[in-house]
């Protein structure tokens, strides 16, 4: 019998890549979206489209009706109000609706994180996972670090920082450790999670075998793409708030997205659970390594375009100037507006 998977966040990078993979695996796919016109034309005619807002209980009930598995790929990456409360309410409503609909499994993509205090955005992602795990519906919370793939905001940030700054003086999180993962491998694990036995209700850490600092990833990106070697140094003055604005100045990643991304990067993002392959099975041929993941993510792109438009020395000086300007901004910013404890805490 045909099985139905509901995918939320189908207009995002992860969700947009997951839908055709589920179709190829024999699933009937239903997508819940507020913007049907934004769905990928390559597969939109092969899926059921439920139009509406996931915050609406009636809309959720209709979308989840008859769904065997529901993919929760929603989270707030904006500056519009209390995103923690919004994500908490959205996840709670989804968990309740999935239970009422008799959904067999929920699958959620969260982030790798250490124990202890987290950035607000990453803490919210963890809280959403906890809400879904406590829903009574068997839930798999896949936890990933930097996703290397076309359309991934975290990859776009890495790419543009590396391409535009041959010399980079940046924040301390450039030395934090991370286990990135290729977009194709995230999708493979997400598809596999739909078939987990009902007794599995837990987090599952996913990532490639390589552990790299962010500075390592920039240097490797430059080597893979044939750019000149990148020189990277860190300074202690760039807080997450300043660093997010610094990223917004250097890259085309919007500040509303850069802010939560930077907030997450202040932590190490490495696997603590190592049984993803046993639970979900690795892709045929194994997980992609960092270099190959970058090559695939850049298919059709030109990583040297910026270098041809900007002199290397000018870009290096711009990097230093930005760091200096933001340091001055930190000193000039009114004390009462600084967020205390910001080092504490989200396909699609």
UniProtKB/TrEMBL annotation:
Q: What is this protein called?
A: NmrA-like domain-containing protein
Which InterPro entries does the record associate with it?
NAD(P)-bd_dom_sf (IPR036291), NAD(P)-dependent_oxidoreduct (IPR051783), NmrA-like (IPR008030)
Pfam families reported in the protein's UniProt record: NmrA
Q: Which residues form the NmrA-like domain?
A: 3-149
GO MF annotations in UniProt: aldehyde dehydrogenase (NAD+) activity
**Keyword annotations:** Membrane, Transmembrane, Transmembrane helix
Can you name the source organism? Kineosphaera limosa NBRC 100340
Does Transmembrane show up as a keyword for this record? yes
Source organism lineage? Bacteria, Bacillati, Actinomycetota, Actinomycetes, Micrococcales
